[in-house]
Write a structure and sequence with these properties.
The protein contains four helices and 14 strands. By secondary structure, it is mostly beta strands. The chain has three domains: 3-162, Thiol Ester Dehydrase, Chain A (Roll); 179-230, no CATH class; 233-306, OB fold (Dihydrolipoamide Acetyltransferase, E2P), CATH 2.40.50.
């Protein structure tokens, strides 16, 4: 099967046996429905509907899932059955995952002060499907969300657990070019600096605040006047991700993408290089360098400094 996992009827029957089993036992929202979260949501979405403010405010219906989320911690309500299902798929070679879609049904509005409870069930496991990403199984969970014990809505969430497709590389295929940065009148000076192997940070001449990325005005005082300072090049990894899949032309996964905190206090997103991707860590010191990718493109990247 060209290196893909072999599939048996017995295996698919084992997967189907998980349908109807709990994915999460009865859980409770970490916070009641509340005005600050509603306000933050509306600001992020640019939603100015007056129904979401005032003494009779309701929560935006599409916030339904937000009241059940656990943040960065693992949900204690998650069941062994759901972990077993995902483990079975991992062991069979379907170890990549992508969220595909969700469906929501709204039965009654949620209002500040509502206490949220919920439970989830493994609603369905599809037959093996072939997609551009690879062949695998769609797993759908359904979460029933209650306010004060009354059903308020339903959230269906679907993921694809798949074995990544292996794409043969054409012989003598031309090397793909990396995407070009978007250069406009607001950031042209930054890219001119990069061409000279300088990493320039904007500095407001009104209040002295440094800012990055480049902006036409100061977020602190509103001044449109600015000059630049050249970054020393020293920094640390503030956060990072490792890109494994899907592959993009001109990029060779896995590779580390870091949010780098410069010594000057601003942060920039770039690749972490010259150190294995699995050795990158938060707090790792890095040093600026410039890498040429073709005749036109030079980018600032950061060398990891191991201790």
């Amino acid at each position: 099967m060209n290196g893909e996992p072999e599939v048996h009827e017995e295996f698919e029957a084992r997967l189907k046996a998980y349908e109807g089993r709990p994915a999460a036992a009865t859980g409770a929202g970490r916070d009641p429905v509340n005005e600050p979260m509603i306000r933050h949501w509306c600001e992020a979405m640019g939603d100015t509907n007056p129904a979401y403010t005032g003494p009779d405010a309701i929560a935006p219906p599409t916030m339904l899932q937000a009241w059940t989320m656990a943040g960065l911690s693992r949900r204690p309500e998650r069941t062994a059955a759901y972990d077993e299902l995902l483990g079975l798929l991992d062991e069979s070679g379907h170890d990549a995952v992508v969220a595909t879609d969700c469906e929501q049904e709204y039965l009654r509005p949620l209002r500040p002060g509502d206490e949220i409870t919920f439970d989830s069930v493994i609603e369905s496991v599809s037959e093996r499907k072939t997609t551009k990403l690879g062949a695998g199984y769609f797993v759908t969970t359904r979460t029933d969300i209650r306010a004060g014990g009354e059903l308020a809505g339903t959230h269906r969430f679907r993921i694809l657990k798949y074995a990544p497709a292996r794409r043969p590389k054409a012989l003598n295929a031309p090397k793909e070019r990396r995407p070009r940065p978007v250069v406009d009148r607001d950031n042209a000076g930054f890219w001119e600096g990069v061409a000279r192997h300088e990493l320039l940070i904007q500095r407001c001449t009104g209040c002295g605040t440094l800012r990055f990325p480049w902006l036409p005005g100061c977020n602190s005082c509103g001044s449109a006047e600015w000059d630049t300072v050249e970054a020393s090049g020293e920094g640390t990894v503030y956060s990072y991700v490792v890109m494994h899949h899907p592959p993009f032309p001109a990029f060779e996964p896995p590779y580390a993408v870091g949010l780098i905190e410069l010594a000057e206090g601003v942060r920039i997103i770039s690749n972490v290089v010259e150190v294995p991707y699995d050795k990158v860590r938060v707090g790792m010191p890095v040093r600026l360098c410039f890498r040429r990718y073709d005749d036109e493109l030079v980018l600032p990247v950061f060398q990891g400094v191991t201790r």
